[in-house]
Amino acid sequence: MADEPTGNLDWDTSQAIVELFEKINKEGKTVLMATHNRAIVDKLKKRVILLKDGKVVKPKPKQEEAQ
Predict the structure, then answer these.
(1) 8 A C-beta contact, residue 44 and residue 25
(2) Which three-class secondary structure state does DSSP give residue 27?
(3) Distances from the Cα of 8 to the Cαs of 22, 36, 44, 49, 65, in angstroms?
């Protein structure tokens, strides 16, 4: 379980941490990560649970977010 493990880190270091989590996940372990960084979420392409004001919400399609 990791809460904002890449917060305030440069992209290269963030990417290294994400790759470590991916390796751990491939070993059959569950990794739960909270992040505000959408680029990391998009890179992982795993199950995403979006929260807004402390409630679970359905994420918007990417086209709507760009507008």
Answers:
(1) no
(2) coil
(3) 20, 11, 19, 22, 23
- What residue spans define the domains of the chain? 2-66
The better pLDDT of the pair 62, 5 is held by 5
The 10 Å Cβ neighbour count of residue 22 is 14
pTM of the predicted model as reported, rounded to 2 decimal places: 0.70
CA pair distance 18, 66, nearest whole angstrom: 24
18-65 residue pLDDT tens: 999 999 999 999 999 999 888 888 888 788 888 889 888 876 665 555
